[in-house]
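Friendly challenge for the regulars: who can give me the structure tokens for this chain first? No prize, just bragging rights.
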Amino acid sequence: MPVRIVDVCAFYSPSGGGVRTYVDAKLRSASRLGHEIVVLVPSENAEVTEVAPGALIAGIPAPTMPFDRRYRYFNDTNRLHRELDIWRPDHVECSSPWSSASAVARWRGGATRSLFMHSDPMAAYAYRWFGFLNPAVVDGLFSRFWDHMRFLGGSFDTVVSPSRQLAERLRQRGLTNVATIPLGVDRSFSPARRDPSLRESMLAELGLGPSATLLLSVGRLAPEKRPELIARAAAQAGRSREAGLVLVGEGPMRRKLERLAAASGRVRLLGHISDRELVARLMASADALVHGCEAETFGLVLAEALACGTPVIVPDRGGAFEQLRPGLGLAYAAGDKAELTRALIRFIALQGSAPTRAPIAAPRLMEDHFRELFGLYGQFALKAAA
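First reply, four minutes later:
Bragging rights claimed.
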């Protein structure tokens, strides 16, 4: 059945990022599938933009984050409740487990509700900060977080996880209504995007010839994504092997990474790229995509790389590891620079002996993800109307 969905999206940024890519795809898919959708985002102003028929982005004026001014945060619960009253949704999705989720839980409207786990806060922060402790001990130290998550689990009709691993951890900590709905990729990510001349020009800018190995990393330049780990490991591997790294993304660590790149000569930063077709060309043209974050709930960039036939080098935990398939790349001990360096050197050696592309299986598409997600929301709306 057609559903009017309001997505309270605290992680949205006009300047890009994984959530922005996901939201743009969600708006287009909802319109094609006959649903109405309004994405409420923290914004500089209250402008409403129609992205597709029945698919809107509505800004709520909000302050910028102190640690990354590209992002804003909801700070007015009453205003958020008024917006929900105005839009009169059948279903409300909240995409952050923090204050906006608490605000949606306290809203007195009759719509059904879901919490979509775009991030894994414990893996991104607590497990990373206290990596020397057993995760069960860390969970005990952060028991208030899990109390909060159980409160949200009891306040929402479902908690949606894109990752089987995260879903199981949520269930182990007492959330009983978790649904696993993996993401998918856009059709533009394909081996047909491979561009040998683009690959050769990227290597030339790193001072390397066409027989060298081109490594690519795509993601926000923030500590939880571990871009410094990737850059240092690639720089070290590049001292003894013909290989270079291109980093795509923006974030608070850019200046530090620029200094590292200048010292290495084998690392280049391209900044954020909003052109999805160019990103697809880069992914299809690279020899491997290197990922550093063990806290991914899914690892969309990895699914995109694999859809292009590009092998992936990933940490051995989290949603990124779930993407790895036999013969399609390598894993290394999460957070360990020496292990990642060894994995890169091993991959470069394998490329030199047998430079082949990964076999291509038909990827799960983002359309499949949204059809399943909106179908679930429709079921909730039907039950509520009965």
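The chain has two domains: 4-184+365-385, 191-353. The first helix runs from residue 18 to 32. Your move, everyone else.
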